[in-house]
## 1
Amino acid sequence: MTQQTIEAFIREVYYQNFELLRQEGGGSISPEAREAGINQVLLYWLMLREIAERVTDTEVPINLPNQRSPEGRMFGIEGVVDIIREDDKTIMYDIKTHDPDYVRTHRELYEMQLNLYAYVWHQLRGQPLDMTAIIATAYDEKIRDVIPAGKLVDELTEDEMTRLKTVLDNWQPVIEIDFNEASVQETIRKFGEVVDKIENRQFAPPELEHLKAPWQTTNQLFATRVCRNCDARFSCTPYRAYAQERAPRNWRMAEFTQYFYDDPADETAQEGWVAANLNASPEDAYLDALLGE
Ligand code: SF4
């Protein structure tokens, strides 16, 4: 297959999947977010074609059933990984749409999950395993800046592609993760604690002060890094308080809503998002209009 044929196939499958999810979930995303998504997949193919072509077992389900939470509830853990088996070496990859630099500086968070999958694969299923790694597909601003707005990676001119390849040299999406099965029981216990909290209906958000503090070891606030990506922010009391506190004294709605959208300046994106969602569930939009909501 030629590069163009594969890229055309990727596009076709991406949009088919998107449409399926849109119809299943009844929600949508802005055209800009949709383009960023397909560019992330195309860049993955451009940069990691060698890995993608070597994958021997794709979307391998990893299941750890019949676990007990600290409060005695039964639960199971499920995940999906890709496996490469080559000569006498087996590598497990977990694909994340996260920022590679973030994964590198917070390895311990990813180690927990990947080590658990490795344990199921290696110890419980008796399969060989030599290495585990995360593939973090989010691309940074330097890459974003050289892709002209509204263009997909496979539509770039020769000059634009040359510029892109220059910045891609610094993009390292594959991050090897230490393989340590000793911490698995601790990870299972932490999953169990979350199960207990959910079953006990303990969903309280953190205090306002927590939102104003830096998130983990980054210099971004919890509110910026976590809350702005949280679907519950529209009805979250501490986040509303945070937004009110930060808005100018004589705030107008336009200024206030910036806290509830990723890019307040980009009205087109917001309109696109609204239109996409209206198209996704026309019956809801009709009912809202009838009820005057
Ligand atoms: S907006 Fe979401 S992440 Fe932020 S405090 Fe509220 S529930 Fe938690």
## 2
Amino acid sequence: MIKIAIANQKGGVGKTTTAINIADALVRCGYRVLFVDMDPQCNSTSSYQAQIEDTYTIYDLMNEKCNTRDAIQQAQLGDIIAGDPHLPEDESKFLSKIGGFEILRNALSEVENDYDYVIMDTPPNLGIFMVNALVAATGVIMPLRAEKYAIDGLARLMETIKDVQKHGNPELVIYGVLMTAYDVRNLLDKEIWQILPETGVNYGFPVFKTPVRICQAVKEAQAENASLYDMSPNCNAAIDYVNIVKELLGED
Ligand SMILES: Nc1ncnc2c1ncn2[C@@H]1O[C@H](COP(=O)(O)OP(=O)(O)O)[C@@H](O)[C@H]1O
Ligand SMILES: [Mg+2]
């Protein structure tokens, strides 16, 4: 089972968009995919139109109140363990618990043979839930949006990833940085895209060959809780995400 964490401690960089469109594309390729929403903002859970109330969620799973299969819902876009706004309330409890970083990894081992891929959306911080996702993951993708301090943020994220590789998950593969909402007419976008390969060499991350272009259809699909591939299959972002998945699968 390949488990991919979509991580960047900055908000608004395209984590949720990337997680959903990669998961959706993999489902359409015929793979068995489980989505895990570790972000208490639950944006992915909303897009999946999954339940949060009156059902087991990531909160129950992380608190070991249910089995992994009990927490899985069959939703609009596929199988998902829903996020939960209550998750961060107990953050300090996990920090003081032996094995507090490994709860998600252990939980996912229960469904090791049920899925080909697990896609994990993560919160916009470097806290215990992001680290749980990185410890559980076999690989990580780092979405990046052109912003003033984007590269500084990446350096900090790479430190966390290297800590996780050193202390809990030596096999964690860095698939790379994925530039999102790329606007070719914007100077900062062009500058960051140009320096990314060299920055990657310095910090130890590859860069996805395809940036995901900025595209209004992404917002429209999100507003409708619809699949981008159904709503606008020929839009720039849909084409780019399909190419990203091909790159992931080694088919490019
Ligand atoms: N390729 C894109 N084109 C246009 N808008 C995008 C694109 N990718 C993301 N966005 C928009 O940017 C905002 C932040 O994206 P989101 O995936 O929610 O980021 P994060 O999960 O990192 O906070 C959302 O409003 C989303 O619709
Ligand atoms: Mg998000």
